[in-house]
Amino acid sequence: MSAEGPGMYDGDVTILDSGFTRMFGGAVASWGVTLDNPTEYFPNAEITVEVLDGDGAISDSYSVDVSLKPNSVTPVGGYVPLDPFAGDLGFSVDFDTYDEVDGEYFIDSEWSATGAILGRDTNADLTITAGSSEGVGELCPIYLVFRDSADNIVGGATIEDHPNIPAGVSKTFKKYLIDDLFVPKSAETFEGYPDSTACW
């Protein structure tokens, strides 16, 4: 795995940590990264996930756009399909600021989501509790990053189907660990980030 951040400003957005887990016989990879934004800017960051073959050549790539708060560490996760010859995943982040230090075009969301994995049977579910000074609409993506008992990233997920969460409200809801949310077997805890700017 690789992680890199292009040099654009003093204190770049970089990938602090990354990881992934192969799932469903290697047909899907659950991946997660944590992004560090030490700047005063509200940047758009494009995360690129590269699927590498056995020789290290790029066989496919996928990208995710997120908006980051200033001076923040943000966990972002998701899934990518894998072909039978996939060997590894590579991660990189591209940084674009719009030069807006006041956040005029961004909602300064203070949401966070943390918790533990409650079960792994087909009827098991996942409970997420979050709180914020800004609302998170039901179509805003919530990114989750999963960690194992040694605090290593073992994957991630994106939740786009969840209840509307009004401003200033702490809300708990459940997602079943089948069909709409796949969790690596080694995952024990999770952290999350709702990107309310993606709802615009």
Describe this structure in words.
The chain is mainly β and 200 residues long. The chain has two domains: 83 residues, Immunoglobulin-like; 87 residues, Immunoglobulin-like, CATH 2.60.40. Helices cover 0% and strands 48% of the residues. It has no helices and twelve strands. The strands form three sheets. The chain has a six-stranded antiparallel sheet, with no helix packed on it. A three-stranded antiparallel sheet has the order 1-2-5, with no helix packed on it. Strands 4-3-6 form a three-stranded antiparallel sheet, with no helix packed on it. The chain is globular. The chain starts with 13 loop residues before the first strand and ends in a 6-residue tail after the last strand.
Explain the layout of strands and helices.
Layout: E1 14-23, E2 28-37, E3 44-53, E4 58-67, E5 72-81, E6 86-96, E7 113-116, E8 125-130, E9 142-147, E10 153-159, E11 171-176, E12 189-194
Antiparallel strand pairs: 1-2, 2-5, 3-4, 3-6, 7-8, 7-12, 8-11, 9-10, 9-12
